[in-house]
Amino acid sequence: MKTGLKINHRYYSYEDLIEFSESKIRAAETENWEVAVFEFIRYWLDDQPFIEQKTSGTTGSPKTIRLKKSQMIHSALQTCEYFGIDQSKNCFLCIPVEYIGGKMMVVRAAVSGANLLYVKPSQNPFRTVKEKLDFSAITPYQLRQSIDDLQGRSENETIIVGGGPVLPALEKEVVHLSTRIFSTYGMTETSSHIAVRRINGAQPSNSFRVLGDTTISTDDEDCLIIENSSLFEGLLKTRDVVQVLDQKRFRWLGRRDNVINSGGVKHHPEALEAELEKFIPGEFAISSRPHRALGEELVLVIEGEPWTEEAEAELRESLRSHFHKFQMPKGILYLREFPRTPNGKLLRKALRILH
Questions:
Q1: Contact by Cβ (8 Å): 107, 76
Q2: Residue 275, Cβ neighbours under 10 Å: how many?
Q3: Are 223 and 216 in contact (CB under 8 A)?
Q4: What domains can be seen in the chain, in order of their start residue?
Q5: Helix pair 32-45, 100-112: axis angle to 10 deg
Q6: pLDDT, tens digit, 9 for 90 and up, residues 54-81
């Protein structure tokens, strides 16, 4: 792709960008994370019509797929149009460029003419950056760690949050922030997000709005089907159970692969976890274990050291007063550390084996 790019307020033409990228890659003082940024820029500028990208491995082993650069450009244009990203804006790259979310921040800057600011990925990338950050992409974990440093930032700044669901407790913590914050829905196969949901401000939303010319429907199992010939070929059938509200809006309920069938009652662990957040500080998950009569029964798994008997008894009492008996976890288990993918997503199948 023969294009230029503005980096840290300096514009590089196509030829200059190739030379600059090569010099950064070769420089002994360039750290690995920065080498990855310029290696992607170099791949983006070559004559290949596609890039190779690993999927996250949330629901199975990671695999390498090919994404057409033309599809990535279309995705970037949809985002830039929706959020008003143009040559007057700053795009802030603070997540690893190895993942599709990081790569797409570079592409968005390239197609819009925006200035690309980049820093080493960290828990709280906003701590040392005082410049106006018109458009940023972060993970839920980074959002949680950045709340204090987002206080007082401009209401004209926008943050999109991807790589995993934003849980209700986190939404409550950021609802008062001036910066516009959106949860995103998408995957590697769609070149990042295809839908967004405002999670703070005066009118946060509980449904995702589809961007551009993407259309949505569901199959017989209420799993989302996505169609957009500019992003991928054919229909993309997901394993995400949703409620379609209209042609452009849907509510995400959980992963079909994660459904727990206990005695004929189907439970979405993500929905139960959203309710449990008010009772449990720290990390936890709803899982299951085999049961002779029910097939499987619900269990609550808490990450870290076991609670005291008194604290656990208080938790059980709170759960009994809040949940229907069919929703009640039949056991409370503890695991020192949850299995996760490299970008922090919980591996639920591995969790079932470990507990």
A1: yes
A2: 14
A3: no
A4: 5-212 (3.40.50.12780), 259-354 (3.30.300.30)
A5: 50
A6: 887 555 567 899 999 999 999 999 999 9
Q: Could you give the CA distance from residue 267 to residue 108 in angstroms, rounded to a whole number? A: 38
pLDDT for 61: 65
Which range among 47-51, 170-174, 235-239, 345-349 shows the weakest confidence by mean pLDDT?
Answer: 345-349
Structure tokens at 14: 């196509």
Residue 350 sits at φ, ψ, to 5 deg, of -65, -35
3-class secondary structure, 228: coil
**Quick one: average pLDDT of 126-130?**
91
Give the model confidence (pLDDT) of 143-189 as tens digits: 999 999 999 899 999 999 998 888 887 898 999 999 999 999 999 99
Q: Please write down the long-range contacts of 200-206, taking CB distance under 8 Å and 24 or more positions apart.
A: 200/171, 200/174, 200/175, 200/176, 201/175, 204/171, 204/175, 206/251
Determine phi and psi for 217, rounding to 5 degrees: -160, -175
Neighbours of 82 (CB within 10 A): 15
